[in-house]
Design goal:
The chain is of the alpha/beta class and 395 residues long. The chain is 38% helix and 14% strand. It binds pyridoxal-5'-phosphate (PLP). The site of pyridoxal-5'-phosphate (PLP) has 14 residues, from helix 5.
Length: 395
Amino acid sequence: MGGFLSIRSAEDCVEPRKSEQKARLFLSPPHMSGLELPLVHEAFESNYIAPVGPMLDAFEREFAEATGFAHAVALASGTASIHVGLRILDVGPGDLVMASTFTFIGGVSPIVFQGATPVLIDSDPATWTMDPGLLEDELSTCARRGRVPKAIVPTDLYGQPCDLDAILAVADRFGVAVLCDGAEALGARYKGRHVGKGARAGAFSLNGNKIITNSGGGLLASDDGRLIDRARFLAHQARDPAPHHEHSEIGYNYRMSNVLAAIGLGQLRVLDARIESRRSIFDQYRARLRGLPGISFMPEAEHCRASRWLTVILIDPEAFGADREQVRRALEADNIESRPVWKPMHLQPVFKDVRAVGGRTAERLFETGLCLPSGTQMTSHDIDRVASIIHACCR
Ligand SMILES: Cc1ncc(COP(=O)(O)O)c(C=O)c1O
């Protein structure tokens, strides 16, 4: 309860004193299970210290089994997975691609890598993910103008699946492919199926802050084997079949290493347990912060089982008596990492000239949203430490 004691006045919350240094509580640190190291040893013993090898094959196979996708290819990052995903959907210079505005840049920058133009769609306030109604309006407008987008990249946000069936219904009507950005939502379920399943492809991240990690990596998954074969070909420098190096198109060096696949394999085997822990952390925060005026939690969309990758709260400064930034700084003063929710892409300087469809929902979420520490090694004492500081900020 030291955090609680370190805040005694309103000023402490606005300009917090540095308390004696406690152990840093990170937002979402890696959590190794113990299964990984023997698999890494095995990779070393096989001498497949390369972007090919048995761990990579096993990882792709077990990933497909765990998620229900027919095929998966393991790549260097989530960003690379979205990039290759757009490429195999034939997105190229001059194309339009619709994306969520309330997301991380790794889901949008690959559109620009391909020379295409993003169109940023606002969120539905009920789910915080891409609003299918706004998408439909925009697609109708595009169709009237004779410029239908090439793809749609909705984000499964903070572990919350987007409303994929509604998005697919609209996309199918206009003949547009959907590539789900499931970077933040590995293991989450939408109407009983894994996120992304039903779209042309789903992209996933194993970055160090994700629910499982191999230090850095990604996967592209699909039920269409030809798409994944092509992704694998492009990710390995687009090498044509020949004894020498022969190239008839440009590819990328995007394959995951066999050593990192070994870590990924160990992590994949504890994914379900990690989801249970993240959901439990969310429930514990909700219980500890219940009744505080002005605090609300990210909703769980209907028919979904979110992974609760991060616990996200909204802080209404009027009702709570302190704003999001004051709470963040009070937590930081106690050596606790928290983070504002994503700054919408349409507010990013780099996208200042990009078309945004709506935007106020994402802006409002950005003004008041805070991601709380959600690592699966957190104890209930750690959750108390965070909650007590938030309590102390309330006036
Ligand atoms: C929504 C979203 N898309 C894409 C990415 C990119 O993944 P990576 O960091 O593995 O490149 C991330 C996260 O890192 C993300 O949160």
